[in-house]
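hey
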């Protein structure tokens, strides 16, 4: 049976202030940390989660470790970094560092700052390849490549064994992942707003997903209560 997904956009980060998109792989602002605390307090499904995923970028890792720290502490399996969930554009703020810098420098710094009760062994790097931050080929910032990447991620999610999965990613990419046609140009990204809208903690059910089993593609359908904040 395919999993139920709890999808969250990252909280407010440094590049969201005055559109400073030139900042490489920015971290969360104090407001972003407050949003993480609010999410940790109000998310009602911590005890259901059996797998946590995020893209390999500092602000996504920060919200994952901070907002879901209690859940991660209880899970035996590590949480996985998923490069297929990266943002749709190639500006410095949306381009990650190499896996070597991520593993040796950035993630240890995040753990030190957050004062977590568990270590970096909780994070699984198995899906992160050398070219993940190249923004070329499979990871190119063009609509066709992004659609293919989103489709590949849906297929992968469909086949995992976990039943309740958190995915922390970017607002622009979410339009491709969910095949959301309500925006005219998802390549423009999504501006940061409040917690309830910017994190977009959307509950997506598997009931309609199963109907696509005979298709060459897998599609995600949202529970009716998801958009109205059932996860907040």
């Amino acid at each position: 049976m395919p999993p139920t997904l709890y999808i969250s956009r990252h909280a407010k980060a440094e590049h969201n202030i005055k559109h400073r998109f030139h900042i490489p792989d920015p971290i969360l602002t104090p407001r972003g940390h407050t949003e993480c605390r609010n999410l940790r307090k109000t998310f009602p499904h911590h005890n259901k989660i059996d797998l946590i995923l995020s893209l390999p970028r500092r602000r996504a890792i920060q919200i994952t470790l901070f907002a879901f720290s209690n859940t991660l502490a209880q899970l035996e399996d590590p949480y996985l970094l998923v490069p297929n969930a990266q943002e749709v554009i190639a500006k410095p703020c949306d381009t990650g560092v190499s896996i070597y810098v991520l593993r040796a420098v950035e993630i240890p710094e995040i753990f030190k700052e957050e004062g977590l009760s568990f270590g970096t062994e909780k994070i699984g790097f198995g899906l992160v390849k050398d070219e993940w931050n190249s923004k070329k080929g499979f990871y190119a910032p063009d609509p066709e490549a992004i659609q293919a990447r989103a489709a590949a991620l849906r297929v992968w999610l469909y086949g995992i064994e976990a039943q309740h999965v958190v995915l922390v990613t970017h607002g622009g990419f979410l339009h491709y992942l969910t095949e959301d046609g309500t925006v005219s140009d998802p390549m423009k990204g999504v501006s940061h707003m409040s917690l309830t809208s910017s994190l977009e903690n959307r509950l997506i059910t598997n009931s309609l997903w199963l109907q696509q089993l005979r298709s060459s593609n897998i599609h995600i359908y949202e529970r009716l209560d998801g958009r109205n904040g059932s996860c907040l």
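The first helix runs from residue 30 to 42. The beta strands are 4-9, 51-54, 79-81, 123-124, 164-169, 202-205, 221-222.
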